[in-house]
Amino acid sequence: MSNFDFDLFVIGAGSGGVRASRVAASHGARVAVAEEHRVGGTCVIRGCVPKKLLVYGAHFAEDLKDARHFGWDVPDCKFDWDRLRDNVLAEVTRLEGLYGQTLDNHQVTLFKTRATIVGPQKVRLADGQEISAERILIATGGWPFVPEFPGSEHAITSNEVFHLDTLPKRVVIAGGGYIANEFAGIFNEFGSKVTIVNRGDTILRGYDEQIRDRLLQISMTKGIEFRFNAPFESIEKKEDGSLTVHLGNCDPIDADIVLVAAGRVPNTKGLGLEDVGLELDKEGAIKVGETNQSSVPSIYAVGDVTNRIQLTPVAIREGQAFADSVFGGKPTVVDYANVPSAVFSHPPIGAVGMTEAEARNKLGTVRVYTSDFRAMKNVLAGRNERALYKMIVNEATDQVVGLHMIGPDAPEILQAAAVAVKAGLTKADFDATVALHPSMAEELVLLK
Prior knowledge:
With about 450 residues, the protein is of the alpha/beta class. The chain has helices spanning about 15-25, 40-45, 50-65, 80-105, 180-190, 210-220, 310-325, 355-365, 375-380, 410-420, 425-430; strands at about 5-10, 30-35, 110, 115-120, 120-125, 130-140, 140-145, 170-175, 195, 225, 230-235, 245, 255, 255-260, 265, 300, 340-345, 350-355, 365-375, 385-395, 400-405. It has eleven helices and 21 strands. The strands form five sheets. Strands 1, 2, 3, 4, 5, 6 and 16 form a seven-stranded mixed β-sheet that branches. A five-stranded antiparallel β-sheet has the order 17-18-21-20-19, with helices on both faces. The radius of gyration is 24 Å and the shape is globular.
């Protein structure tokens, strides 16, 4: 029998922590998890799941209008924010229950409280109870970053946006990343006046330039306003509860809410990591090797808290690899090459592999193929909105090294295409595939 209370103690019951817990338990480990908020973590409780449900809800604004062009007599419809919000939150609660049930089914002990590390193999719960474990896994994820400036306390983050009492008429969103652009599309479709304020001059840094330029063009056509090179100076709260945002290099903007979407930082504060000599990087992320082991041999970390790739499926892969390696006798290392990603903007973006700029810098000579077209549905609906598909090919090998798409259902199409990029298939392989007609996806095998 072990001299420890548990073989594994996991701090954080998000996607990575839950996967690691149940897999380790299935390998016979005695596992405990501590979660101070709600089981499910960022993705399920206050991230990609409820956000995607809002995206679905927002799409009906255009779908109802388009339906008239397809013969449906659709009356003018009124949107009920309260109903959607409550339905989304109810679904989140249902999923939270399923995550808790998964832990229970695998005999994982759940402590619904905060835990901190007080030794290489010891944690302390909020009530003072100390628990020993042979290994500790930190899976506390990330947390929204809010820069400090006068009035910053009046802003909200993506954590609070799902709980708004009323739908705001005027929304100012700080940031240019995927969270900012996704919520800009959501609120714009719901009828809010949306302004994105970015301290830099680029949205969606890291995505292919042509794709992000197309989103900017479409977003502006839909009525979303942008302010670039405009750092926040202050937020002033008025007597009626409204806000005035004061910016550098442009005029003030009046708003009902200010949503700060300026990125996320590793959630490591107050965990006691420095006290046990655990090494962090300059952003507060836990430094780990390819086996997810930290500078303290008994402590591991997975997910956004390591700040490698901040994506839920990556955290799940890391949690699985950790459990299989440490408790399953199956050494596993996560491959971070060609990880697909999506932006659920309006329209959405899907991407995998290198951008054109990255490919030219790394490979030298590349071939670029594009298809710029209107989806059939948009043609009949009278919408001028155009999709753009882009393929990057290594000139020397004919290997497809990048795919980038913006248009209806782009993430759904990109997932299957990402398999081809991951497998190292060539442009000739795409060309040899018979098109599935009529579909938007067929453009991928018809690129000339």
